[in-house]
Amino acid sequence: MKVYLSSDIGRQFGLMGLVSLFSMLLLTFLFFTAFTDIYYQLKKEESQDLTTAGLAMTKGFYELSSKGELSEEDAKAIALQALSSSRHIHEGYYWVNDSSGNMVMHPVKPELMQIDLSTVQDVNGLYLFNEFVIAAHAGGGWVDYMWPKPGGDDTAYPKVSYVAYFEPWDWVIGTGIYLDEVAEQKNQLAIQAAKLILAAVLLMVLISVLFAKRSTTVIKDMAIKDPLTGLFSRRYLNESEDSFISRDKRNEDNHLYVIFLDLDHFKFINDNFGHHFGDDVLEAVGKVLHENTRPQDLAVRYGGEEFVILMLAESIEPVLQLTERIRMLVNKLQFAHDINLTISAGVAQRGFEESFPSVLNRADHNLYTAKAEGRDRVVFE
Question: Which of 8, 118, 164, 359 could pair with 101 in a Cys bridge, judged by C-beta atoms 3.0 to 4.6 Å apart?
Answer without folding.
Answer: 118
